[in-house]
Q: What sequence folds into this?
């Protein structure tokens, strides 16, 4: 493997939909652990089901700091009828990452979102499924030429497959 790549997990944070907030991030953390990727998860040390321990300025400042340190941004822009809030944070993170010249790997289950001209312009690559995006990141940013290429979308490590 090359030097440790860092990845920021951008996407919905909704205290009323914790499954949509946590599940894909946990899946990404597990998947990239096999490739020694440093993960910047904006949910770390935040207990969304309890009283906040950070104020809004601390949250935004830490997210900006993490974005600056990250090599790649993985955005999961979930559209679901259960979501009642407007996601301002994710578009802000995309804009900041774009201006920082970070590769933005964008995922959305909604075709209208994927086809939006701002999403098209600011994204390095756009996917419908999170597993496709994770495999793309490994193939294009983590595995160096000549290394054993082992990409899977079933969240199994290369060692398990060999």
A:
């Amino acid at each position: 493997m090359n030097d440790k790549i860092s990845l920021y997990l951008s996407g919905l944070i909704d205290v009323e939909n914790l499954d949509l907030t946590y599940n894909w991030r946990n899946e990404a953390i597990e998947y990239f652990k096999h490739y020694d990727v440093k993960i910047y998860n904006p949910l770390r040390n935040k207990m969304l089901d309890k009283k906040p321990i950070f104020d809004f300025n601390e949250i935004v400042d830490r997210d900006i700091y993490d974005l600056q340190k990250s090599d790649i941004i993985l955005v999961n822009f979930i559209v679901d009828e259960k979501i009642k809030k407007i996601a301002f944070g994710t578009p802000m993170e995309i804009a900041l990452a774009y201006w920082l010249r970070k590769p933005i790997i964008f995922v959305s289950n909604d075709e209208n979102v994927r086809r939006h001209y701002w999403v098209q312009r600011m994204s390095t690559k756009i996917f419908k499924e999170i597993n496709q995006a994770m495999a793309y990141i490994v193939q294009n940013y983590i595995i160096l030429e000549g290394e054993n290429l082992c990409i899977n979308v079933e969240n199994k490590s290369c060692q398990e497959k060999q």
